[in-house]
Amino acid sequence: MRNPFRQLLSFDRNSLRWQNFVSTAAFTARVFLSIGIALFLAFMIQLESPMSTVTTVLIVANPTVGALVSKSVWRMTGTVIGAALSTAVMAMFVQSAVLYFMVLSAFVGLACMTATCLRYFRAYAAVLAGYTIIIVAVPAFAHPENIFMSAMMRVSDVALGIVVTAAVFMVTSPRRRQGTMDALSGAFRETIRHALVFHEGLMDRSDAQDAPSSEPVGTEGAFRSLPQTIYDGRQRLLGQLARLGPAIEYAATDNPDIHAGVRGYRLAVSRMTGLVASYHPYWRNLGVANPLSAPVHREIRDTLTELLALTETAGWIEWPQGVLACLEESLGRLEVLEGAATSPAVQASVDNVRDILLQLRETVLDLSSPRGPHVRVRVLPYLEWMSAIYNGLRGMLIAFLACMIWYITYFPTGPMMIMYVVAASSLLSTAPSAARASLPMAIGTALSVPACWLCHIAALPRVDGYPMLWLSVCACMLPGVWLQFHPRYGVGAFGYTVFLAMQLMITNSMVPDDITLINTWLAILMGCALLVLVFRVIMPADQRLYASRLVISLGRSLQNLSARPAAKVPSWMVWEGTQIQKVSILLMRLSLVASPIDRQGYVDGAFAALSLGRLLIRLRQAVEPAGLSAHEREALDVALASFRTLRRDPVGTAASLMAAAGLIGAGEASGMEGLYRVRLVSCLEQIAHIINSIPGFFHADGPLHLWYDEREPATLVAVNPAR
Question: Which residues cross the membrane (predicted)?
Fold first, then answer.
């Protein structure tokens, strides 16, 4: 068997594994240094609960300094709000214990619901407000008159931990703007590569055709399966773009240059995500059924290849003139191809490629001039109300159950159980799936009980002086701190470290009390059981239901977009930015669904819904210049009105759109009117084909929306569920 230490020493210093080891070790060292300083100062100024400063260090510590600063600010904000609420609730309901517990639980539930709605570390303010109410109230249960002093001590503990951690990490961590810009540049190049794979594939398939096909667009009626490498690459790229969002937010907190252009960088990431979403199996159908569009794909293939060469240099974002010139030249050549396009099928390829190039141009402008006048779009965050309300109800229920268990049994360390379940449920409300994360959180917390026991029997009795105390505490917390940001063990490691610090109960004048320690451990274990019981048994998450709600929301967004007057059609970027957030959440929900489901079909269907929105907006923009007659305008209005039946009869909606396309396409026009008429027909045909390809995605009786007793083996979204 190989020696692990020899294997560690044999690491290549340039390998990713060695770099991860070094960065984890550096982060752990910073955390332990922050713990040592914070705990020492807490002893020096005689704080009542010095371990609260350690808990604060463990919670706010983050390898990214910007994330640490943001987390610290919002932690302090939430602590102050929670302390004020706790004082007010205690003053108003001190005479009635049950009523006090009910109001307390309501505030905890409200905090959990708010935390689910907010993004990034803004959600942390709501989390802290929720469980600070309990932390402040617990010491004052026996003596309500001391509630104000308890609130002040809590604020002091948190403030000390925040200041020390921020100082240590800001002094010892390098902060560079270039790292964020390199990440944005890398994501842009990966987006271009992803698009290039599609167009090269379309070129190969189109060149293989011996003669032009007379088939209409997408006669196959269903999405083709893409090569697995494309699906894997798309998933990897979407994950990379999803991580860029928080990275930009955190870098903006710490770097003035990033902060000044943060809106532009956000838009760039959103545009790149939209570009990735544009490439789904419909592109493959379009290219195969219409080999006449090969020159269009050849043009964008050459353009994308040139863009990759132009963006190889590190400073292309500061000097984007060459990239912009390349895009403008390609758009000019597309206009020539568009003038020669008389078929709606070829026009569809031209329009789609033009959209891609325009988005690439806007992305380059967002990256190179993030404070320019073009950065006017503001994409509001999407609120998943159903999940938020469910998390709020869980938080309220678990807080009330814990309070009533203590009230009825009068268990000596019952308040510790209340503190744990409220803190854990508040922290879980920010997780993508609170129910799924509750079990690792409970396991990690349960493992902290034997660690606390070992610390109390093996380390603390032999401590002589503060350095030994600091080393003993750090040794006990080492596993949790080291694994805190591991993708598989992160939640459990976080629960281990945070709640181990809560159990150690190291004070200025320690008096060993085995009975209290045992009761504390029992309270923590009872809290773990209650956490899993509420989150996994009483109120389990139905990821399939959450996903179905998001699919319904995507369909309703298309219906609203088709019904809006032309003057009130939203900006392409505003509409798409909101839908991209829904799709991102949907992908996460689908990955957690346990029952059989056509995941690949639903992912492609969600991306196709984004394309439908683009086509609808493009269609509305082409109506006026097309010079339609009254009869043609009436047919178009009927086709758009058919979106009202999209959830009942998607095939009928597609048929109505095709009928309007046939009527408008039969009309004669020349010049610019004729060009816009061809654009209009191409949009109608594309929309109809996409709906016909995935009727089960939009139908109210689609496979994702079935009840438990109606569910069958994974039905494809390409199947129309209407009977």
Answer: 21-45, 99-118, 123-142, 148-171, 388-408, 465-482, 489-506, 518-539
